[in-house]
Amino acid sequence: MSGKHRPRPGAAGTNEAKKKEMAWDLDPNHTSVSFSAKHLGLATVRGLFTKVSGDVELDDPNDPTTARGTVTIDAASLNTGNEQRDIHLRSKDFLDVENFPAITFTANSVEHLGDDQYKVDGELTVRGQTRPISLTYEHGGTAADPFGNTKVGGSLTGSINRSDFGLTWNVPLGNGGLLVGDKIKLEIDGQLVETKEAAAVSAEAEAEASRAS
């Protein structure tokens, strides 16, 4: 009997653990981060952020509850289709992008609600203020693109009150209302692609496991 210590299955550094440690990047070409708010309490103004990145770990691409990671948004990439409005939203009245260039969302836990619906609890940081929020995730599934890259996709939706993050600028109206609504609806629709390093480690672990069997 050998005196060498045999690592337990799934222990850090073992092939099983390496196979499970799957790192993913947000695919910027197939990801959108959008928001909307009420103007005068009547019309809905919509906008999006054109620069977003993500660092996500997903042990099982078919099980969103194994996901954790952070999405980082370039606050200055905001675009509502109106240059004057965008300049104002980037100013100190709102996002103050010069002092707070990044908006981040960190997913801490994912709970399966049924079918393809999940609840994602995490922390959103806007203008240097971090608050816990819950978003709803609809899992789109997994697929391989024409180049052989594994993709995972879905949509995150939810809402926040901007005043919770210090975005309190407004103009009172004669009817007692406000120019800009406090409630902001959020939607992140996109895809994750497995990093090349993680894919290589996973393939190596599968090959070694096959040779050992």
Tags for this entry?
Lipocalin; 3 helices; eight-stranded antiparallel β-barrel; disordered N terminus
Structure, described:
The protein is mainly beta and 213 residues long. It has one domain: Lipid/polyisoprenoid-binding, YceI-like (Lipocalin, Beta Barrel). Helices cover 15% and strands 46% of the residues. It has 3 helices and 11 strands; from the N terminus they run αββββββαβββββα. The chain has helices at 15-20, 83-90, 196-212; strands at 23-26, 32-39, 43-49, 52-58, 67-74, 78-79, 102-114, 117-126, 129-144, 150-161, 183-194. It has an 8-stranded antiparallel β-barrel with strand order 1-4-5-7-8-9-10-11. The protein is elongated, with a radius of gyration of 21 Å. The two termini are 20 Å apart. Mean pLDDT is 85; it is low at 1-19 and 198-203.
- Portion of residues in beta strands equals over 45%
Mean pLDDT: 85
Corresponding CATH superfamily: Lipid/polyisoprenoid-binding, YceI-like
Helix content: 10-25%
- The largest sheet has its strands arranged as 1-4-5-7-8-9-10-11
Q: What's the architecture, going by CATH?
A: Beta Barrel
